[in-house]
Amino acid sequence: MLAGVAALAILVIGCGEGEENLTKAEFIKQSDVICAKGQKEVLNAYLPIGKEKEEEKKPLTVAEQIKFGEEFYFPSVEKRVEEIRDLNPPSDEEEQVEAILTAVEEAMAAVKKKPALALNLNRNPFNKKPKKLAEAYGFKVCGIG
Asked: What are the residues whose beta carbons fall under 8 Å from the beta carbon of 24, sequence distance 6 or more?
């Protein structure tokens, strides 16, 4: 369940320094590559756990899902945040990008404070403002799914 949420969290966008600004298409493409890599890492971390639970014919408990988030999901999101921050969005869209950044950081803070929020699709903070902003910006991987 958290693996799906990773896609939402990994959309964090920031501004790199000292490099030329990318076009919007380049920025989205490079960010989406980073997000896809992050999603794959989270999925690969989950597969052995999921397989074990499947063999036991038991779903992951809430405590196990929260532990997975703390051990794999949060660190993966934080790693992708740093990688995407090294990119330079189009200069005329920095405010829009900053709004996405802020929304994701707020969602991450809320989920870190109450990890169980990520387990409820209706209450998950990543499914609200960050997702809406990412979709509006045009991401194809980051923040979608």
From this structure: 89, 90, 93, 138
DSSP 14: -
What is the DSSP code (8-state) at residue 20?
P
**Is 38 or 82 the better-scoring residue by pLDDT?**
38
pLDDT of residue 25: 97
Cα-to-chain-centroid distance, residue 77: 5
pLDDT tens-digit series, residues 96-135: 988 887 888 899 999 989 888 888 888 889 889 999 999 9
Using CA atoms, how far apart are residues 92 and 78, in angstroms rounded to an integer? 26
Helix (H, G, I), strand (E, B) or coil at 10: coil
Residues 99 and 58: their CA atoms lie apart, in Å, by: 40
Rounded CA-CA distance 130/145 in Å is 12
Task: For CA atoms 83, 89, 135, 128, give the dihedral sign.
Answer: positive
Number of residues written out for the chain: 145
Read off the pTM: 0.80
Q: What is the pLDDT of residues 2-27, one digit of tens each?
A: 544 444 444 444 444 557 899 999 99
